[in-house]
Amino acid sequence: MTAGTHHQCSPWLRIGFGSAASMVLAFAGTTNATLSAAQAQTWGVLVSPSVACREAPSHSASLADILTQAGDRWGERVSVQDSASDAAGEPWIAIDGQRLRGRCWVPEALVFPADGTSPLLVMADRLLEAPYGHSPDHWVAVHNYFKHPAYSEEVAASAILGLRRLEVLMGALRVAQLRWTDRPDPLVLAWLESLGDDVEYSPERGGRERWTVSRRALDALYEAHRNDPVAEEILWRISRYPHDPEQCRRSLRCLFDAPLHGVSRYWLTYPEGAFVGEAVQAAIAQIDDLGSGIIGSSVLGICEQARAAEPDSWQLEAWGRLAWEREGIAGARSLRAALGTVGEEDKAPLLDYLDELERCAAEVAVRLPLEEPEPVAATPAEAAADATPDLAEPVEETRELAVIASDVVCRSEPSRTASGYAVVRLDEHFTPDRPDTVAGGEAWVAVPNWSGCWIPRSDAAPAGTAEHVLAIADRFLTSGEGRTLDHSLRVYNVLASRHLGHRAIVDTSAVLTLRRLQVLRQVLIVIDPTFHAPPLVRGWATQLDDEVWLWSIGAQWLVRDDTFLRTYEAYRESPRAEEILWEFATGPTPNDCEGSFGCSATVGVMNKLARYWSDYPRGRQVARAVEIAAARLDGFLKTCEDARGAEPGSRAANRWRWANWDPDGAEVAGEMRATLADVGEADKAPLLALLDGVDQCAAAIGGINSRR
After folding, report:
1. What 8-state DSSP symbol labels residue 647?
2. Which of these, 623, 629, 613, 627, lies nearest to 678 by C-alpha position?
3. pTM for the structure as a whole
């Protein structure tokens, strides 16, 4: 393991406790040998994303439960109940918790004290020691722990924890994209996009992974901890950052610059560092690997082939295109100079490699034909003339369309009854190669991508426009189609993804920004139950903490009210402003008011609906807003009427007393009346009548409401 790694061992031994028999009491911080485990109520956290919990302290005992982690530190804590050793002497711990079906046993090495960050390092190291033996859920679950509010501040302040978090994220990105096709998993895509500045996107990097940990994130970590002993390990990780071979485009200078901007940064900073020998070997490997990505063989390999090749062969031509004289010599010279004060023994392999390459290049040079002079660039006038189209030839207009519905069946003929042999995905772009046709009173359009099959014209819209993105969102929100998480996320990604969606268009449009938030609200609705959300769902939702919050009492993720209000303020002059504020006003109103009129009226009416009719007293939805407000408070009138004549201390009397009308409720009711001042008489009448009814009923009851 590299510097800073914590080797796995008993967490109790590591904090100074010697035997499994004394583990429970030691963890509780007590020396009273008679204190029971139940009285101690100690807490731990599992350090493996998936743990088999058994009915007895033995690997051969019956399986009681499979404990999986999603990264919720509060909900996934386990209560340490007891300890024992199996026949082989391995210590075990009996645990219980709110997500378990009952008490069961796990090896002691898999449970760490819940306080402190030591579990994070063990979780990370377990993954990094066997990177190909874990699923994406395992990697994301551990990354969620690193980002959890219980640990996030300590992770941000620690060099080793910060590095391990990014290394875990690297593993999560690699595994999550391992089996990607041209149709990525919508949940994985949503999670990737939520990671923000921690990741960077490169289309088809090396033909595989698209998202990698951001160089900026690694550099920021290094700069923040330059004086930490772990700084060397961080810089070593940065220096080995994967380079994109497509950027070099058959340039030898670029091939040599890659290690210059990578591993050389490490050995120049730490010329006697622990990884210098590996850094030099990595520089050789980078040159060879990048050469393979550009010319199908290592640089030295193509040179050696050219040295033995026949005149006019492709090997000689390939080497000639690399332009050793123009680019290679200068690049190799720069790389030699960059070795700086690296020890002779450490830098010898790279110098030997460059010497061999230079000797080979010199032998090949005598066999290459003289380079032809480069053509003189055309003058601006000549270039403009060349760019002018031939007006005699008609320019054919293209008609690119996009699919606006999910999983549209593409049929062999323009008919709903024709066989369907392909499914066209949401937001797929295509250009019809045949005119539209009408069959059975319905317009159809040909999709050439699928050998000329047909889809209904109503399932497509002009591509690359705000209109087609709006059509996708409106279709989803109004069609009543089954909203699975997969379906909802596909629509959400169209609006939210900056790389595989249309976020740039969305962020410049009031209506599309509103639609994105409306779709996000629908996605959150289908995540159920929240407390058992899988790692990718939890990782995605918690990363959106500027727009999404978790209402823990109701176990529900919700779009933040502030998100709608920020959007409203940003587009206040837009014709869509009223629609945005109405969406805010009619959103969920979670609360724990426990029957209090003042609290319920504030949360459900004053903070929401009253904001709408205050800004739009003659708005399109004012009558509806008042109707909703009256419905939300109607129960209090019934509660008050039930309390009339009720015996003091009875349930009916107590419920009205808990409503706390006097003075809190009456004051909020008065404030509510004031907000209705500019609303039309007919529109506000239902709510005023309700408030009058509650006021009159409360006056009739009198002292029953007084607090005791």
Report:
1. P
2. 613
3. 0.82
